[in-house]
Amino acid sequence: MKNRKNAISPTRNEDYPEWYQEVIKAADLAENSPVRGCMVIKPWGFSIWENIKKELDKRFKETGHQNAYFPLFIPKSFLEKEAEHVEGFAKECAVVTHHRLEKGKDGGLVPAGELEEPLVVRPTSETIIGAMFSKWVQSYRDLPLLINQWANIVRWEMRTRMFLRTTEFLWQEGHTVHATEKEAMEETLKMLNVYADFMESDMAMPVIKGRKTESEKFPGADITYSVEAMMQDRKALQSGTSHYLGQNFAKASDIKFLDRDEKLKYAYTTSWGVSTRLVGGLIMVHGDDDGLVLPPKLSPLHVVILPVLPNNKFKNKVFEHCDRIKKQLSKIIYNNSPLKVFVDKSEIPGGRKKWDWVKKGVPIRIEIGPKEIEKDEVTVSRRDTPAQENSSLKTGKFIKNAPTLLTSIQNSLYDNALRLLKYNTKEIKSKEDFYDFFTPRNIEKPEIHGGFVLAYFKEDEEIEKKIQEDLNVSIRCIPLEEENNKEEGKCLFTGKPTRQKVIFGKAY
Amino acid sequence: MKNRKNAISPTRNEDYPEWYQEVIKAADLAENSPVRGCMVIKPWGFSIWENIKKELDKRFKETGHQNAYFPLFIPKSFLEKEAEHVEGFAKECAVVTHHRLEKGKDGGLVPAGELEEPLVVRPTSETIIGAMFSKWVQSYRDLPLLINQWANIVRWEMRTRMFLRTTEFLWQEGHTVHATEKEAMEETLKMLNVYADFMESDMAMPVIKGRKTESEKFPGADITYSVEAMMQDRKALQSGTSHYLGQNFAKASDIKFLDRDEKLKYAYTTSWGVSTRLVGGLIMVHGDDDGLVLPPKLSPLHVVILPVLPNNKFKNKVFEHCDRIKKQLSKIIYNNSPLKVFVDKSEIPGGRKKWDWVKKGVPIRIEIGPKEIEKDEVTVSRRDTPAQENSSLKTGKFIKNAPTLLTSIQNSLYDNALRLLKYNTKEIKSKEDFYDFFTPRNIEKPEIHGGFVLAYFKEDEEIEKKIQEDLNVSIRCIPLEEENNKEEGKCLFTGKPTRQKVIFGKAY
Question: How many CB atoms lie within 10 A of CB A190?
């Protein structure tokens, strides 16, 4: 393999956070807007989100949920109904105080028409949805109530990063009501599994399912579960959460029902969500030093066809041939839908054109010029191998095998990500080893550190606070399969006996 | 036909506005929320909107548009860039002035963290999108730029009505940039036609395409086109608009490009939108005194199967038979997708169950009981005929012909709506006849009046103001096909010669 420059500078090793921004720019996914902390999601980035939405929405509907839409605004008094909840969100919410602008003394427009009660732009919708649910739920016959909303959310974040943490973001929030604790717990875990399944099978992103500690819970929840993924800088991305809310919000919003035994009871509720943050996860799990790498199941395009024109003489012939191949490919089914294929006829020089598509992460590129036409071949490159590598295939064979090739790419992306996760997750038994593991190897690159630690730990908020301060490390989750080990172990900090192992890591 | 009570009270004739609210309630489409002027769109209503979205989105993509997402918030200074624009929206916008809540003197939470510049919750996005476009557009090679956004919008309306006029609503807004006036005009009219085609073929709602007069234009547009439909109370619903913005917003947002002739020029822009208001249109065009009537192409369900159980002995047998028929129907293709079928096994009494589905407007209901099973028949009712009417059909024949039946329902809804429009649109030649036409026949029902007037009219803002005050009548549009008639006529108010006929009507 010859030496070459990478398409993205800096590389992941040189400066991971900066590499991330450059990939977004090179793939034309999004950009910052003039509105503080808000991003603009550009067409290529938005179509990835549309694909995520489509696949998740299908899974939500298959599990019996229906979509609805609730108000953007939440009256201040609603937010105040649940004490922990308002505590968690009051510090970062956009407040609407007026309902018009009018000419001020200096001629400029000033806010006017002050509202009697300020409205908060939803940072999440438990309280406003709860107010509606209290009307909708009267009898056990109305349960379970399984609702989902796709919406925009505003949280006034001080430090923002595109897709990962922005003032406004897009998400879905599921909100459900159940007659019993048991059913609500089942729903909470069911949706956690729906998320994990989607992320592993569609995003090719392996995740760890687990419970959050008390200090990392959603404000107002009894239990929060999350799915955590490892990015290529070995930091954790909390990719989705599912909350068992017990009766907290039912009591705050007065969601009661007449049960079969004719007694009036408070219901049990859940909520669960994932957001445009997932696009950030996709970038950081699969991207390489040449840009974005998209898992075929979520890519806006599966195959991009690049006509090769040694000179203009062949233009019509090559374009027509490319169109024919596009037409044939578009009849092939992959992942239950026809292949998405594009012929790039733009007048950009061939080299730049190829690199544009490399940077955008399209799974398969094929080049077709007079030589290929003569031999009835296509020159095929897959995005999960170095950009210079390619192979010549007979046209018919390539078309027939395109779905197999895509499946192979999808699987190899998953395998690589799983290898990263396994290789960088270490079992650790002493505090000394723990501190050593999380101390940066290279002082100039504090992002690249050990990875995840799996260790026996007895929950203790003081210790959690200390390692957060010392190392910027937190407990990502208590993996479901490690909550109650057969073998008892010793907490790595206190030596106290416990059956519970947890995952520690630095997090986005 | 025996005498019977209608499912909706009051009927359309008794009290049309109240009938409208009752249909929404009976079909469980939406309800008011505790947030002033904001509604909650419930699952049945939302799935109609999802179908509208899906069909329109397909058409937008087929015409070369891409989806993107822009910030919810617009800095006040952006809104002020276009003088007419800010004039039009300043009076009704939600203003964010603070970014957190904190404990006040009396212990309650008060807005804190005042923003340097207030933010407006988008009432439309020309200005914020324009700011991004000015970065994206540099050369003629970047044009045309064809973008669409699905988003929520806030306009602080004083008098709201569900779906038709709410403080927050959902919509799409297309925003495009072109090198020439000609191309921008073509785009404006192309999207007007996309709307009209969708409304006629999918919503079964005939529309009149036309240009708005100066006084009814979008604030900041050079020309506004609209599609206008007639509701069953003969009032007009402006159902969609398409704006030719000339260079107004290009100048306000500094959207310039280097043209082929190497000169730097301002671009030409367009914008166009439809909203959840369309759901209100569907209700008012097709609904009857038994509730909602859905055009098959947009109905969340095509066929609802109602098991008939004379007693519990037959329950399993009937349910299994119904499931089999559902399975067979679900393989049938209608409008390019499999039929959407539901078996209602709920324990609601049969009569109420049937009426629930009548009120929800499902195009086809079939009843299946032991008698039908024995004869291998189904009892079929179509929603566009009175609820008591039905016919028995052999099961196989019904299944095979279901798409034909749906097409027949779709067509009959369109034909009825077209008949209403034609029958209640009158050509009028004098002011006296005009005033007579718009004077309510029945003083207690001011909503039911003449309908639309088509007449020669020479644009005159004073006259427009006068008829608005006298009769609450406005010029809905200047129909495209009436802008330049071969025959010259006399303006019905002034007698001045003009080739232009306009549509007058009362409007939502």
Answer: 16
